[in-house]
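Annex B. Sample input.
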Amino acid sequence: MPTYVNQTVITELCALEGLFDAPGAASMSKEVSYVHTHYRALIEASPFVVLATCGREGLDASPRGDAPGFVVVEDDTTLLMPERRGNNRIDSLRNIVEDPRVALLFLIPGHGETLRVNGRASIVIAPELQARFAVDGKPPRCVLVIKVDAVFFQCARAILRSRLWDGGTSQRESRLPTAGTILASISGNTIDGEKYDQELPERQRNSKRLSNAVLTD
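Annex B, continued. Sample output.
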């Protein structure tokens, strides 16, 4: 480890706070303990959210995506999120069983501001609730019922600096390893990476069809 790390580690809050100016009034006043009408609009426009959880095995930040509005604002202190088909690792759900605290980061393509929600989640398997989120007659395995503790928007600086919505598909296609390449390398070629990549587009199309079914339901 470089020597400068041990020389400059901050371990006290007063030292940390001394590095920064006091937050402005806008930074503090934008936080509320309920889903404001304007915040509801952002949630209903978002097709993508990062779900952060913690548990005995550590931390997890997991992507969730579907048609815009797939996270439902049930009331001004409650969000509903269906658990769609995934890889069955259920890392987030394991953590929630142990510790209900969650954090959500909503993104909207082309929009600079993001929305942050902190709360406590329950994993619910009530048939009538699951039926509300059914696609092609198939309900989700469970639904996360999230009680809101804090909601606030994050300004667009990070999105603008990263140029997140400026494209970049050519870089992805030409320079980055494919999912199959990664799997083959890590598994010592016990997973056929070429076959995985060939089959992936169809799996993704099936997933997109599910999202379209939600939109037209």
